[in-house]
Design goal:
The chain is of the alpha+beta class. The protein has 15 helices and 22 strands. It has helices spanning 18-54, 83-95, 106-115, 173-180, 193-201, 212-222, 248-264, 266-275, 283-325, 332-397, 407-439, 452-462, 464-470, 489-506, 561-571; strands at 60-65, 67-68, 72-74, 80-81, 99-104, 120-125, 134-136, 141-150, 165-169, 186-190, 207-211, 227-229, 235-244, 401-402, 405-406, 449-450, 473-477, 485-486, 513-520, 524-531, 575-580, 586-593. Strands 1, 5, 6, 7, 8, 9, 10, 11, 12 and 13 form a 10-stranded mixed beta sheet that branches.
């Protein structure tokens, strides 16, 4: 296929040098080589399948266990069925084989393979001792062997089987394992896994060694309710096709057919059909995780971008400040005024940019969060509606797995999970709304009135994470029926945020306290913020409210927080005062006039 490119008139250029021609040809050669490799890869699968289908195979007899569900077993009509059976027929179809599947007792099947009556076993667990007798294909499943006991009895490891009577199927992989490893236990041999489980359920002997997934199928089919597998698997064994030692051609044919099925997706469909049927339903949890990720990931990106942007802005301010400081000697008065105006603009720009950023993403955060708040009541109603059915099943059949936990535990914990999810979503909505209110431009000026208690609550929520990381003793004491204050609630929130952050930065240990309280006098509404930190040195008190004065320059401080806060309080007709606390720390008092 060719692409027609528009003709362009280019200015004359000099003839390329040999090095230039080489640099031009290298990418072209790499592109051509990549295209050839892609064409070869796309044609490899059909070619391999065609070659496999052209191979002539004799009529083959496939053997397997007649009672090993869901891998292989005889159905109610006595016909072979299961994961191994369907997989074998699919391999035979893609490889052009004529196969006959024969299922019987496992011991007889192993003897039939050795005598040549059957050509291949379609399911055999890998073991080092078996390599002397058979050759294995790549595994098409992993079988988890488990210790089965009666309910109320626990045996978690092989060492605990010493001195016990252990039921095991004759000539199974666990029988071979026990013969190789002397466990000082008494072995009771049976002909099938079903016999082992029924014998254990009848109250005889101490334990049975049965693969977990086949055991679960057999227990359900036989109605054995008093035996269970131990939670931790005993062994994990590869499980695949096995031929008599030296029959490499047949083994290669089945291995190639298995690879073709994996490549075209047919293997995964068969595997999901037979081996995925006992998996717990996961759709609701995946949906909850997806909705949670839709909320958390954008929020993390926003916070990360805000931190990076803030660091960059601080660095720019420091660089500009150092540059202006070198001109102080000859432009002292003009420089002072320039600093004040410049940093006012920087602070205003920072808050305006933050407000724009938060307004832009608040909608994206609130939408998925609203879905959580909308859908959670439906989930709760669905669970409550289905609970009588689950309880009736529980009363009739005993405890069962419900999700990832037993139903007896899940019925108590699931309502708590629903409640925690709803509370978390409401907390996200409250935080986003507080951030929007904090960063929103207050064009109304100081004409309105507000409740100081509400302003303090909003500011405390904004810095709640920093407070919890800094101290384990935070007290918020709100006076009742506090008079209204005239002015901007958002700007007073900014003052409270600065004071709370300063208090957190003054603490040296998490057991030191921060105490916040509100109150009023005849003419003023009061806010006090007290910390038990390192306090303020006496020589720093006269400079505390000066712009650019900070003792935390190395930690990123700019010296503008208290200066900006003082300006806001004065614009509201109030005052900001600092005093040492007893025995240590600082008390900051904000006094604002009561609205007339």
């Amino acid at each position: 296929m060719y692409l027609a490119l528009p003709t362009q008139t280019a200015p004359p250029i000099a003839s390329p040098s040999p090095a230039g021609r080489f640099n031009t040809l290298v990418p072209l050669c790499l592109f051509i080589l990549t295209a050839l490799l892609l064409v070869c890869w796309l044609s490899a699968a059909p070619a391999a399948a065609a070659e496999a289908s052209m191979t002539e195979w004799p009529s083959l007899t496939i053997g397997g266990d007649s009672n090993y569900p869901p891998y292989e077993y005889l159905d109610a009509n006595g016909k072979p069925t299961g994961f191994n059976v369907e997989l074998t027929r699919a391999i035979a179809e893609v490889m052009g084989m004529n196969v006959k599947i024969r299922l019987g007792p496992w011991g007889d099947m192993r003897k039939a393979l050795n005598s040549g009556e059957i050509d291949i076993l379609q399911g055999m667990a890998f073991a080092e001792d078996r390599v002397r007798e058979v050759d294995f294909s790549p595994p098409h499943a992993i079988v988890f062997q488990s210790i089965w006991t009666r309910k109320g009895e626990e045996l978690h490891s092989l060492k605990e089987l010493a001195g016990k009577e252990v039921i095991v199927m004759r000539q199974s992989v666990m029988h071979d394992f026990l013969l190789k490893n002397n466990l000082n236990a008494s072995y009771v041999l049976v002909d099938s896994l079903a016999d082992a489980l029924k014998l254990l359920s009848s109250g005889k002997h101490d334990a049975a060694l049965v693969a977990k997934l086949p055991g679960q199928y057999l227990v359900k089919e036989l109605g054995l309710t008093n035996i269970v597998p131990q939670a931790r698997p005993l062994l994990a064994q590869k499980y695949g096709y096995a031929v008599k030692k030296g029959n490499a051609e047949l083994l290669d044919g089945f291995s190639e057919g298995l690879a073709l099925l994996k490549r075209n997706g047919q293997f995964q469909a068969i595997q999901q059909k037979w081996l995925g049927v006992l998996d717990p339903p996961r759709v609701p949890w995946e949906r909850a995780i997806r909705y949670g990720a839709m909320v958390v990931v954008p929020l993390l990106l926003i916070l990360g971008g805000t931190v990076i942007w803030s660091r960059t802005l601080q660095k720019r301010v420091e660089e500009r400040t150092e540059e202006l400081a070198r001109e102080v000697a000859e432009k002292e008065r003009a420089l002072e005024e320039l600093r004040l105006h410049q940093d006012k603009l920087v602070q205003a720009d920072k808050l305006a940019s933050l407000g724009t950023l938060l307004s832009g993403v608040a909608h994206e955060i609130n939408n998925p969060n609203a879905l959580i708040l909308l859908n959670m009541p439906r989930f709760i109603e669905a669970f409550q509606a289905g609970r009588p059915i689950l309880e009736e099943y529980y009363q009739r059949h005993g405890d069962f797995m419900f999700g990832c936990l037993k139903y007896s535990r899940m019925r108590e914990e699931l309502p708590l999970m629903f409640e925690e999810t709803v509370n978390g979503a409401r907390q996200i909505r409250r935080i986003v709304n507080d951030l929007k209110d904090f960063a929103r431009r207050d064009d109304a000026g100081s004409d309105g009135t507000f409740d100081l208690n509400e302003a303090v609550r909003a500011a405390a929520r904004l810095v709640d994470n920093t407070i919890r990381k800094t101290t384990s003793h935070m007290s918020l004491n709100y006076a009742e029926r506090l008079p209204q204050v005239r002015g901007s609630a958002q700007r007073i929130e900014q003052v409270v945020v600065n004071l709370l952050l300063n208090a957190c930065q003054a603490l040296d240990e998490s057991d030191q306290r921060i105490i916040v309280g509100t109150g009023c006098s005849d003419t003023e509404v009061l806010l006090t913020v007290q910390d038990e930190g390192r306090g303020i040195a006496p020589e720093h008190l006269p400079q505390l409210l000066d712009p650019f004065f900070t003792t935390k320059r190395e930690q990123g401080g700019t010296g503008l927080g208290l200066w900006v806060s003082t300006g806001i309080v004065r614009e509201h007709g109030g005052r900001l005062e600092f005093a040492p606390a007893t025995p240590r720390g600082t008390i900051v008092t904000v006094a604002l006039p009561i609205a007339s």
